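Translate structure to sequence.
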């Protein structure tokens, strides 16, 4: 038996590849045989944990804004996103019974707040389109003859034949979900190049114990800047979290998507610095008046007891120590110079970034199969006829907000859809 299409990987990209191909065959009025191979015991293990279990399906932004959120190779995505957009995935999921809602920042979630409902809808679609799903099926290698794909070999040595194969094996992060990087190996074995792989949307490790001493403290409405030596490369306002190893939270995760080879080099040389402005809404003059007022209000108390209105309690001992002001000194005795130093600290609490955390804590993998070797209008390999790529396996990544899943839906759909013409 020869399948029209074998899809390797039952995550977001793979499921959409299978559905996209089925839609294409139906439109052409042709019968089809499509199989989706997944090595886990169920589909969508990573999908299940997305958005803290709520699944931020996509972002309801304008398409042009979508490309701004993509950090690597946004132009490569034009055809894929215009073929299958954020509206298309919402329409598909709603058609199969899962209603969606839009939250802050255009983030789209299922109304139920359960990622399992997204998976349920996709499962229904797979059944509706008569797609064969084989679970517990681990692909070991691709079968290629004279630069044409002819099938795949499983780890039990069984060979499956097909006219086309879509690789949708995902990236290298959260490997417990099944994304163990097999697709990078398959791609290399048939002659593709893979750009350097790094964890992204990932927390930062910082030097010293300052962050650890504030572990668990989450700050809203602070600004976070990233400096390569003296050059500012990132400046955003939002939420940040201190952890036992350093810095995390949305601001930090987004900053981590900027780490290209140049910034990684700077980080390894100890030149990368994260600076937190704890009071971005106040300029220096306004903050100085505020400090004067607080010190005055607490003039009889020890300095360490004068910052309760200004800072969260977990942060006070740290700031007091870093300010160099005697913690027992009466607030009324704090000098202008000391107040100035305190102000500088509040506007620029800095951390040397020593490394990122590893793949096991990274939301996505930066790097992947080289886009120069893939036709962006079909997702077909330029080297091997009938081989298609989709999802996180490709050298594509974006910031948080539903964009990474949209990359998987769009490239998956286009890969499957196009395969039906080969
Ligand atoms: C904790 C976390 C939260 C996230 N939250 C969001 C979010 O809310 N919104 C968002 O847009 N993005 C989110 N992401 C990113 C998003 O989940 C991924 O970008 C997306 O799932 C990638 O889809 P994919 O189909 O390419 O890969 P995957 O979802 O990783 O799927 C790949 C599949 O291939 C299978 N596979 C691998 N090798 C083989 C093989 N040899 N044989 C058979 N099967 C194989 C794997 O088991 C896996 O099921 C999150 C990621 C993480 C880790």
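Result:
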């Amino acid at each position: 038996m020869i399948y029209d299409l074998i899809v390797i990987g039952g995550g977001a990209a793979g499921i959409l590849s299978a559905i996209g191909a089925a839609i294409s065959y139906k439109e052409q009025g042709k019968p089809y045989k499509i199989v989706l191979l997944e090595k886990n015991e169920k589909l969508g293990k990573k999908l299940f944990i997305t958005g803290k279990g709520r699944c931020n399906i996509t972002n309801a932004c304008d398409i042009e804004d979508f490309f701004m959120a993509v950090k690597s190779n946004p132009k490569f995505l034009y055809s894929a996103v215009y073929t299958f957009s954020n509206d298309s995935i919402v329409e598909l999921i709603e058609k199969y019974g899962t209603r969606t809602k839009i939250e802050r920042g255009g983030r789209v979630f299922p109304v139920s707040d359960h990622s399992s409902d997204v998976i349920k809808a996709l499962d229904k679609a797979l059944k509706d389109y008569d797609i064969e799903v084989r679970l517990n099926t681990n692909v070991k290698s691709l079968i290629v003859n004279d630069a044409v794909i002819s099938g795949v070999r499983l780890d039990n040595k069984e060979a499956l034949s097909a006219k086309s194969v879509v690789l949708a094996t995902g990236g290298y992060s959260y490997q417990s979900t099944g994304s163990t990087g097999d697709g990078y190996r398959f791609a290399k074995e048939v002659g593709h190049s893979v750009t350097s792989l790094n964890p992204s949307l990932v927390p930062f490790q910082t030097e010293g114990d300052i962050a650890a001493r504030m572990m668990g403290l989450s700050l809203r409405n602070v600004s976070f800047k990233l400096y390569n030596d003296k050059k500012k490369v990132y400046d955003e306002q939002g939420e940040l979290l201190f952890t036992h190893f350093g810095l995390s939270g949305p601001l930090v995760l987004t900053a981590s998507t900027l780490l290209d080879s140049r910034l990684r080099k700077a980080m390894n040389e100890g030149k990368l610095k994260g600076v937190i402005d704890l009071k971005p809404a106040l300029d220096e003059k306004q903050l100085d008046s505020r400090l004067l007022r607080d010190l005055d209000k607490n003039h009889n108390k020890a300095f360490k007891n004068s910052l309760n209105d200004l800072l969260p309690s977990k942060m006070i001992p740290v700031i007091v120590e870093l300010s160099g002001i005697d913690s027992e000194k009466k607030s009324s005795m704090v000098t202008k110079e000391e107040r100035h130093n305190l102000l500088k600290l509040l506007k620029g609490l800095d951390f040397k970034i020593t490394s990122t955390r590893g793949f096991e804590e990274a939301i996505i993998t930066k790097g992947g199969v080289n886009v120069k070797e893939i036709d962006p209008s079909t997702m077909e390999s330029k080297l091997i006829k009938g081989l298609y790529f989709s999802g996180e396996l490709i050298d594509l990544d974006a910031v948080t907000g539903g964009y990474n899943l949209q990359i998987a839906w769009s490239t998956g759909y286009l890969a499957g859809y196009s395969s039906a013409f080969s």
